[in-house]
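Propose amino acids for all 283 sites.
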């Protein structure tokens, strides 16, 4: 075990024992708490460290989403297809001496998710669409608070200006006048902000969506969504593009007949990915 794996194992144990982690069991059951990821070392790439003959567990392998401010949303039915797009950001430039290549790392992974909502019909589309624009719903209470604060500030400003004019005094924009009249009339000074200063932005809400599927968590944001409603089919189709900014976890085989990919060719002597059977639990 490498030093990174040892540190991850200790951290996982501390997370379980921490009394501040309320609802950790439910969060882990939905797949958002994952064991440490295999990493590369001098002995090979991460896939060489995947164990074989793991205890098999019966588990519904369905996609779940974590939506900021709202919690976990489970898809009614898995998509028909998920396309994983990986691309490196390399800029080739032609020079007199040949090509020069600039390596900028990797571009954002793209998940193209498509399928139908099955028997859930248009209500299933409503769930997906509300997930797609959840940051708008989450920001509504803050927007209402900001609008109310602005209206209150405008009302106080008008009241103070009117009172100052009746008294023959200067405008409340003069330093000290607004505070004096505000204290006499029992209203807040227009220069004091009542709304919170550090509010959550739409970007923060939009970029913190997470998708769990089969042992991996994909964190990112929705880029676009298309809905197709056809007259010759009762199923309503959808296509969603999800841009990934972070990946956690490690996907492993989930079929009982799968064999090890790190122990040579698939022959009768190749060890199985799973052995035995455990009722319940999560993969």
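Proposal:
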């Amino acid at each position: 075990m490498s030093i990174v794996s040892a540190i991850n194992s200790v951290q996982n144990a501390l997370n379980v024992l921490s009394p501040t982690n309320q609802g950790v069991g439910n969060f882990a059951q939905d797949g958002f708490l994952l064991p440490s990821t295999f990493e590369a070392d001098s002995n090979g790439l991460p896939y060489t460290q995947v164990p074989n003959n793991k205890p098999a567990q019966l588990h519904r392998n369905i996609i779940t989403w974590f939506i900021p401010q709202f919690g976990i949303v489970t898809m009614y039915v898995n998509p028909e297809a998920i396309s994983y797009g990986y691309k490196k950001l390399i800029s080739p430039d032609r020079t007199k001496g040949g090509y020069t290549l600039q390596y900028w790392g990797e571009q954002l992974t793209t998940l193209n998710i498509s399928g139908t909502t099955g028997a859930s019909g248009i209500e299933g589309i409503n769930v997906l669409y509300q997930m797609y624009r959840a940051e708008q719903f989450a920001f509504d209470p803050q927007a209402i608070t900001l609008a109310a604060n602005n209206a209150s500030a405008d009302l106080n400003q008008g009241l103070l200006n009117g009172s100052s004019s009746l008294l023959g005094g200067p405008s409340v924009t003069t330093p000290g006048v607004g505070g004096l009249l505000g204290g006499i009339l029992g209203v807040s000074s227009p220069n004091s902000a009542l709304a919170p200063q550090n509010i959550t932005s739409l970007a923060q809400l939009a970029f913190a969506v997470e998708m769990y599927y089969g042992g991996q968590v994909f964190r990112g944001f929705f880029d676009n969504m298309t809905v197709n409603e056809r007259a010759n089919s009762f199923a309503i189709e959808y296509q969603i593009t999800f841009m990934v900014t972070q990946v956690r976890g490690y996907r492993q085989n989930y079929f009982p007949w799968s064999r090890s990919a790190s122990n040579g060719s698939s022959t009768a002597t190749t060890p199985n990915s799973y052995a035995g059977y455990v009722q319940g639990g999560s993969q």
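The first helix runs from residue 3 to 17. Residues 174-187, 189-194 have pLDDT under 50 and may be disordered.
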